[in-house]
């Protein structure tokens, strides 16, 4: 097997492992445990909850798009221990700095709606607080130290949480900004 194919296969495996461990646990296993612990032996889906399925699907699709960008553009994974080696400012990262976190919240909020679970809603709220504290307390500081002025410019032009279409001069340079999140 040639070196390029080996590196590509390694990247695919690393992203799959990350996906199973981090979003798999936080976005599927923990919500399932919460829903079953507070809903009896089985999880019932309320009729009013079925419109949540597209919300969950949108969150999963956004996550997949982000991981693809981390692998294809950044040559890394969303994990801080295996972060992209190149800047990722394409795709959803042109609209918002932390789309993976938003994808995770969409999935869990959709699950809360699907199962009409206040416990899952509370879990989503805790996730949002944790994400914000992690991004502002660790991630942004680390990226400012690592990438300096290019990250400051990226912060100035791309919002942290509320997506906004890129605008003319406000668009970040395609490869000048750092990877924006570890999730």
How does this model look, in words?
The structure is a single chain. With 183 residues, the protein is mostly helical. Helices cover 60% and strands 0% of the residues. Helix 2 runs antiparallel to helix 3. The protein is globular and about 45 Å long. The two termini are 31 Å apart.
Strand content: under 5%
Distance between the termini: 31 Å
Low-confidence stretches: none
CATH architecture, please? Up-down Bundle
| Global mean pLDDT | 84
What's the number of helices?
5
Report on the biggest sheet: none
**Principal-axis shape:** globular
Radius of gyration: 18 Å
Query: Which topology does CATH recognise?
Result: Four Helix Bundle (Hemerythrin (Met), subunit A)
Oligomer: single chain
Class based on secondary structure composition and strand pairing: mainly alpha
Could you give the order of the helices and strands?
HHHHH
> Care to count the β-strands?
0
Tally of individual domains: 1
Question: Which CATH first-tier class would you pick?
Answer: Mainly Alpha
Helix content: 55-70%
Please write out the topology.
Elements (H helix, E strand, L loop, with lengths): L2 H35 L15 H20 L26 H16 L3 H30 L1 H9 L26
Features:
183 residues; Four Helix Bundle (Hemerythrin (Met), subunit A)
Outline:
It contains 5 helices and no strands.
